[in-house]
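Appendix B. Extra example for self-study. Work through it before the problem class; the solution is given directly after the inputs so you can check yourself.
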Amino acid sequence: VTGLSEHTTLNTTIFVVVLVVTLVLVYRVATRNATTADYFAARRSFGSGANGLAITGDYLSAGTILGGVGLAVLGGLDTMVVLVAAALTWPLGAVLFSEQPRNVGQYTISDVLAFRMRQRPVRAATATVTLVVSLLYLTSQMAAAGSMIALLLNVSSLLGKLVIITVVGTVMITYVLVGGMRGTTYVQIIKAALVLAAFALITVFLLGRFGFDIPHLLSQANSRTVPGREITRPGLLFPGTTAGRLDLISAVTGLVLGGATVPHVMMRYFTVSSGKQARKSAAWATLAICGFYLTLALLGYGALALVGGRTIATTSGGGNAALPLLAFEIGGSWLLGVICAVAFMATLAVVAGVTLTVSATVAQDVYGTLVKRGEADGPALIRVARIVAVLVGLLAIAAGTLAVKQNVALLVIIALSLSASALVAPILYTLYWRRFTTRGTVWAIWGGLLAGLVVVAFSHTVSGAPDAWLPQFDFAFVPIKNPAIIGVPASFLLGFLGTVLSRPENEGRTAELEVRALTGIGSS
Amino acid sequence: VRDDGPQATRRLEPVPMPFTTSAGPDYLTIRNSPEFGKLRRDIRRLQLGCALTLLLPVGALTYVAAYRSGWLSTQVAATHSLSLIVPAVLLAGLGPGTIAFYLWRYRNRIEPQIKEIRRRAGVSGT
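Solution. Structure tokens for the complete assembly:
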């Protein structure tokens, strides 16, 4: 295998087929006379299995699918730690962040945090976090779309990548405008089923090549690694310095706490009929995601054993090409085609889900609460959400083109870390601490977000390094890149201080929240 | 002491008060009831136990990977070192195992309590 360039026609055909099929699907399932419950929460009509698959689809982006296998090939021991953290955020989310928020909220995470607080300050803070996290996440996915689809379609010019990003952005806007939550959820379900089936298929074929002898596969993988990048070597992603070690701990903190609380994933819990269904859907997602990450590591080692570390490292796309190369090695053009379809679908589905979250948040919290003071009607909210979806799509296209050369995996971890920094403490305090007040909520959200942003702004992610966003400047003084290790404690501390420095609030509403959260009484 | 038999015992059992008012569920009464207190305690214990079951091994793995990575190089078999086995066990066993226990415990211990409280509040199902 010398590269993927000779399969451009096949890959382009698959890309077009995926676009047409998903657009037709979204059009068919879309409800014409949509209410807010239809547009933002699909009328809470999904079952736990379907929603579990949709959550899986939301979480497994193209960056995770292609980049994850690449990390297993080139990232050594650190990769295994990152994979474990990324997977185990789901059982934790099922336990702490699924049923109770579903019982309290209606469409977005703001509904949960503002339930027993003063609406305007809390919704303003939560909307800001949702926008920052979602736009960062969206930027990373658009950049990934440009790079990965360009790799699979053999597009090397910058202009070609920009055209791809524009096409992806346009399709994403169409999904959200036409399909709303129902349409994007169906796309996620199909995508997740496709991803899981493809991974299971390749894993079976891979193990069959080695007579289902995993030790033999591992010994082959060990013998074909790039020298210095052995699969058990530590420090390949996070160097063995004090800062590198702290960065590893911070990244794991961000992944474990941020993965299950990222706004576009939490919004999925509002599409099921009850808290019990939310709990079960998180459990289905846990099974699917843990299985996915297990096979992902195996496929990485399979790629090493069959393709070889040197070939992968020198191919255009590097680690991202490991999975397509492995698929081609195992099953020829048709299996490569399956992987391409999975990657295209993954990219389109994730960006659509994030865009819907941003549009719902702006419509509900910014327009509905801050501008109209709760007096906006349903059609107006949907109209605003659709306008915002278009604007966000255009913004994402622009940001994606600017970030096309950035490290996508790093952007994703930073987005999850910011989510953990700003949202975990207020959600836990809201659900578990009766005394928690509006001031505590606002301090926790703003404090966590700002602490996280300051860490990122003054780290080598932004300046002072050749691969930084602004390589020509150097104002970096924070030695770590992932903000969760600073942001999460800051948010907990500020939430505590804000609460003890303010008076207790609204006892009746606190009791209602507690009863709703634990029993579902009063929730719709 | 007069022994009136099982009939007397039944007469003395307090009838549970409904958790509703004319305006709907009485949240303060529900929250302050001993039944809700027990439910709250049971859910908190279950959540804390499951969360720690997940977080402690992940924390330990992260610490070892950061500061004692040599331990993970320990060979268990010819091609298996702890660096491969421990993450595989966590992914295949800990995550699904914890969630299976959580669901089982919730269905058997928590849901009956929720059902009873909802019944008294005039709401059906769990």
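Self-check: The beta strands of chain B are 20-21, 24-25. If your reasoning did not lead you there, revisit section 3.
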